[in-house]
Design goal:
The complex is a heterodimer of chains A (503) and B (124). With 503 residues, chain A is an alpha/beta fold. Chain A is built from 15 helices and 16 strands. In chain A, α5 crosses α6, α7 packs parallel to α8 and α12 packs across α14. Chain A is elongated. Chain B folds into two domains: 49 residues; 69 residues, no CATH class. The interface between A and B is medium-sized, with 20 and 14 residues. β1 of chain A pairs antiparallel with β4 of chain B.
């Protein structure tokens, strides 16, 4: 009886007045793309609705005779002759605090079964990045927790740093460990992880991993898995960027990881080929450069007037057999403010993280580095460069003089210090202490195989007995004379345990 | 010349001159030039143009001629442009009517109302 009453009331409320609708008619359906006639006055990126199935679409190609519509749903249900209605609003994505800690699809629909996302704010997905006046040079560092990156290839808040390497390398794991490291950072950035064309179980593994480490509470996962239509792959990075931009304009710091943009380029290629746009190199359409540059230009460090927020982007890209001179890799290298190349050859040699320092660069990050780290980085860079040169040279020589041998061993020890496991993260102060001991020559008498043990004990010792050292480095970002003396004393005390006097 | 432009030209000519003559002359011309296959494209374009100039009035059941005329006059007033009105009977819309043009749709059918209600309650 109750249901009957409710239904009666609802029917009374219904608008029965005939509605004037602006429509078009479907005449061609291809994989994920529908062509329609009519729809006069439709805008580019305007939302449309297929009347019979209520599936949404977005107009992406306005041509003389027809309109190309990207179907945002199951396109197999659409039939020829279906009516398409104009929605008279541009494609947008829900934004707000309620998206934090959630897994959503590129349209903002929840996928984690934690219920509806309650937010009224929406932001247009396709927008142009902030202009020159709204920006500011990058000054604040974004600590990654990876020693080699923080010391030699520093990333600043608002920077775009490309992670590229073969599919077998650990680039995704290291990108994820950057998210983990933000947990205890001052002014913690919000993190967004965009999964494009990844397997569902891989995404599940990542979300469980983040949840286990307590990182999901400040992270949003935008998921366009391999089973979703190609239109979702294309939209996912833009959706993630829209959410990031919202927080940035609120004055907050945001870190966004696009995993990965190779799949995104493939999706746009597929769409463009179906729309019969002229293919160029590797069958990509002519605007493939703009596809990525418009996305990455939206990352910025805003000026104080605009709230001072920032959006740091870490796009991930697959290379084939270590070739970084492919079409998409060179495009992205030129767009980004630097790249970190994960070299499969180094991985095979057993170096983790397998970062090739010769082919990696960070163009703006050094100005964002803390003073303490900058001083150390100078010596580190020189020592590593010398080591790499000597190593190549000595491959062909049997007998080496004592000085060269010493240099080689020191270089190897520094590389040992810079190595770390893929889920291991080092807070800034710990990174500093261990790199300080390496550059000041304290490793000289410690054998190579004992270096990791020495590192562990040193950090544990300071954490337990002298936590004020860590605290002071963390707060000030630089060290004074009294602190160095204290640090020297502690390092000397611990290193004597590991020294091999017979060496 | 493109098929679309040719089709437009044929329509504009047919307003003033004898239609049969035009058809004959066009066919003769393409036979002479050995480009018969081009006729197919022109025919497709002509059909397209015809559809564009058409307004479809969909009714649930057949109405009296008198009432139909009244409806047609009213539709002509709304759309203003001189367009052909085609009447189609479709019992699926239950009652009421639909007016469909290339770019617009006026939905005054019971089916539309029921579909809206269904959509409202089956979405979640």
């Amino acid at each position: 009886m109750e249901i009957y009453e409710i239904l009666k009331k609802e029917i009374e409320k219904l608008k029965t007045k005939p509605q004037w609708q602006e429509i078009g008619e479907v005449f061609e359906i291809k994989d994920g793309i529908v062509k329609a006639v009519g729809l006069e006055g439709v805008e580019n990126f305007e939302l449309v609705e297929f009347e019979r199935t209520k599936i949404k679409g977005v107009a992406i190609s306005l041509e003389e005779d027809f309109i190309g519509i990207l179907v945002l749903g199951d396109y197999s249900k659409i039939r020829e002759g279906d009516i398409v209605k104009r929605e008279k609003k541009l494609l947008s994505f829900p934004v707000g605090e309620s998206l934090i800690g959630r897994i959503v699809d590129p349209l903002g629909e929840p996928l984690d079964g934690k219920g509806e996302i309650k937010t009224k704010n929406k932001r247009e997905i396709f927008k142009i990045g902030p202009g020159i006046i709204e920006r500011e040079p990058i000054r604040t560092p974004l600590h990654t927790g990876i020693k080699i990156i923080d010391a030699l290839l520093p990333i600043g808040r608002g920077q775009r740093e490309l992670f590229l390497g073969d599919p077998e390398t650990n680039k995704v794991d290291f990108a994820l460990s950057i998210i983990l490291n933000q947990k205890n950072e001052p002014k913690r950035p919000y993190c967004i992880y965009v999964a494009i064309g990844k397997r569902e179980n891989e995404i599940l593994r990542i979300s469980k991993f983040l949840e286990k480490k307590g990182a999901l509470e400040y992270t949003t996962i935008i998921c366009a898995s391999a089973s979703l239509p190609i239109s979702f792959w294309y939209l996912a990075p833009f959706s993630g960027c829209t959410l990031g931009e919202y927080f940035m304009f609120e004055g907050k710091d945001v870190l966004i990881i696009y995993d990965n943009l190779s799949q995104h380029a493939f999706s746009w290629r597929e769409i463009a080929l179906i729309l019969r746009r002229p293919p160029s190199r590797e069958a990509f359409p002519g605007d493939i450069f703009y596809l990525h540059s418009q996305l990455l230009e939206r990352s910025a460090k805003l000026s104080e007037k605009m709230g001072g927020g920032s959006l740091t982007a870490i796009p991930i890209l697959d290379t084939k057999q270590g070739d970084i001179t492919g079409y998409i890799p060179t495009n992205l290298i030129s767009i980004c403010d630097g790249q970190i190349f994960f070299d499969i050859d180094l991985l095979e040699k057993g170096r983790i993280p397998e970062i090739n320092l010769g082919l990696s660069v960070s163009r703006v990050g050094s100005s964002a580095q803390t003073e303490a780290m900058r001083q150390i980085a100078k010596t580190l860079k020189i020592e590593i460069a010398q080591y790499e040169e000597l190593e190549k040279f000595t491959q062909f020589i049997e007998e080496i003089d004592v000085k060269t041998k010493e240099k080689l061993i020191q270089g190897r020890k520094i590389l040992e210090i810079l190595s770390q496991d893929k889920t291991q993260i080092f807070p800034f102060e710990k990174e500093f202490v261990i790199l300080y001991s390496a550059t000041k020559g304290f490793l000289k008498n410690i054998p190579l195989e004992k270096i990791k043990k020495f590192e562990k004990e040193l950090l544990n010792f300071i954490e337990i007995y002298n936590p004020e050292i860590f605290q002071s480095i963390r707060e000030k970002g630089k060290i004074d004379k009294s602190l160095t003396e204290k640090l020297d004393e502690i390092i000397f005390q611990i290193k004597s345990k590991y020294e091999n006097r017979g060496d | 010349m493109k098929a679309k432009e040719l089709a437009k030209k044929i329509i504009s000519l047919s307003e003033t001159k004898d239609k049969e003559k035009i058809v004959k002359a066009t066919i003769d011309y393409f036979v002479q030039k050995k480009k018969i296959y081009f006729l197919n494209e022109i025919l497709r374009e002509l059909k397209k143009i015809e559809k564009e100039n058409e307004i479809e009035l969909i009714l649930a059941r057949d109405l009296s001629e008198d009432f139909k005329e009244k409806l047609k006059e009213k539709i002509k007033k709304i759309f203003k442009k001189k367009k052909k009105i085609k009447i189609k009977i479709d019992p699926e819309i239950i009652a009421g009517f639909l007016i469909k043009e290339k770019n617009f749709l006026i939905d005054a059918s019971i089916k539309g109302i029921i579909e809206n209600l269904k959509w409202k309650y089956t979405r979640f």
